[in-house]
Amino acid sequence: MNYSFDWSVIWEYRELITRGFINTVLLSLLGLIFAALLGILMGTLASVSSRRLRWIATIYVETARNIPLLIHMYFWYIALAYLRLPAFACAVLGLSIYSGAYVTEVVRSGIAAVPRGQYAAALATGLPPFAAMRHVVYPQALKIVTPSLAGLASQLIKDSSLASVIAVAELTYEAGAIEGLTFRTFEAYIFVSLLYLALVTIVSQVLMLLTRSRKSETISVSEG
Amino acid sequence: MDVILPNLGFLLSGLATTAVLALISIVAGTVLGIVLGTLRYTSVPVLGQAAAIYIEFTRGIPLLVFLFLFYFALPALGGYKVSAYVAAAQGFSFFIGAYLAEDFRSGLRSVRPQLKQAARASGLTETQVFRHIVLPIALRRIIPTLFNQYVRLFKFTSVASVIGVSELTGRAMLVNAREFAPIAIIVTLALTYLVCCLALSSIGRALSHRFTVRT
Amino acid sequence: MSDRPMIEIESVSKWYESFRVLSDCTTAVGRGEVVVVCGPSGSGKSTLIKCVNGLEPYQEGRILVEGVEVGAKGTNLPELRAGIGMVFQHFELYPHLSVLENITLAQRQVLKRSKAEADERGRALLARVGLAEKERQMPADLSGGQQQRVAIARALALDPKAMLFDEPTSALDPEMIHEVLAVMSELAAEGMTMMVVTHEMGFARRVANRVVFMDEGRIVEDVETEAFFTAPESERGRDFLSKILNH
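Above: the input entities. Below: the structure tokens describing the complete assembly.
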């Protein structure tokens, strides 16, 4: 190996890296919020008794998750270029719609895991359907699916790196920029790898911690 | 359609490249996944820990960055040259291998210790117990997960276009640059991936139905 | 080695961490003898029987099978185990293999029999346990009693010199217990050396030559069957018998 390391470039271009990191966090955060909203909406549709509404959810899930994320982003950025959406917005749209399909599946399975009697009991106490879902079903479902949601969140953070392909100046994009400016290929990519690793680890650990601290609220129900 | 048909041959050969790239990576990644998953399962000293570190690292970083490591960073470090296609195949295989390793490990762990004990009681050696009992049961149980990962990998291959591999997405973008019909081209591209992924999933469902282990 | 017992257990003790599960156990099973091991749950009887073919290690004492020490360093355990059949409480049939494949796997892998040879032996044994027509089925398609009979056939396929039974009927519905005990009684009548952990006292009384009664990791009684049932020596033995017989 004749490669001589020069890690000083990382410090030299710290502003680029910081900007990229902030954009990655913003992108992921917005993507997460919209994916969660979409997933809750579609996951609820997937759980209702109306077959037609369930179809809407099924078609959404199967279409969105079987098309590569890159193509999702190209769709908004290139196919619908005449809308002149900023690249960042295209990335958020692509990420949310793609990841929303996975959230939908998780939400659906969470709702399915809450005993049907819970919803019926809530209706019986006079709660309207929406309130019954909001106060009785969702909180219990959320608790069940938090580990899966933590996994989806870390996946989404990693997926956000594809936004660099449509020129969103996030972390991966800045790594490329530093590489182009300095030719310190190895340092640039290894450093951002470690940044992603740290971000993903911290986010998933925090989310898992949140579940654990709320475990005490769970009532254990003996079956049969 | 009038932009797709004249370029159909060009796009189809891109699809062929995508399929071959996916197939190579699926095979190599599965072999790597079995090896790494087994090392983790048997907790072989040193090698087991090395596998754990590799798996954790790989699962913590984005695919695109991982591809850049194989296309730019490692060749720079080692002073060698690699074609985009080879780098993509390496990157995908090593990437998916890390995910499959965890799936294999949980599959291997799902086999009850009492069943292994029964196999030992009939005189099978540890290697035979693993080869004839634990591994086949684990493999059958994880077929659904396995095919989820294969579908993921198939979608991943579109990212190879970013480092210049002339697969389906790369060729579609070339056609778009020439014809400028982005909606038609990208929708066709999306539908092609959709059909391929759905086909792959249904193969997975058929196989898992065929090989279910009922207890 | 003609007069020597098939299985000799000499002052065996075993610990899980600091918890002593077997204390100074000594007994033996002669050629062609049927020994029933009984006792309350947690008395160590399953652990003791699993020490015989080395599935569980022990820390003190010796266990000899045809003069070969199970716990010795150089002992070829797979070879030793191939000579002793074992039947488990929860059957432990291989769920991914058909009934016949369950019976042929070890024949082919351990005894290196040809497929034709192993199949033939497997079919003969299935016919013997009354399940000839089930060879292509998967274990999950059989009832518990049928699965246990397949498990017995699987053990017999290796032509064992002795058979170990670890609570073979405890997981079965009452109406299926009989079919398994019938196969076991037949085996005993043919002169098979057997060590059986069971709560089936009717079977013990009819079939066993000796009863070993265990409590808290110790062998409390080791006597002729009739002696155990008519006049147990120990307080605990009497207590156990009265509980289980009045059940």
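Note for the figure: Chain B has a mean pLDDT of 93.
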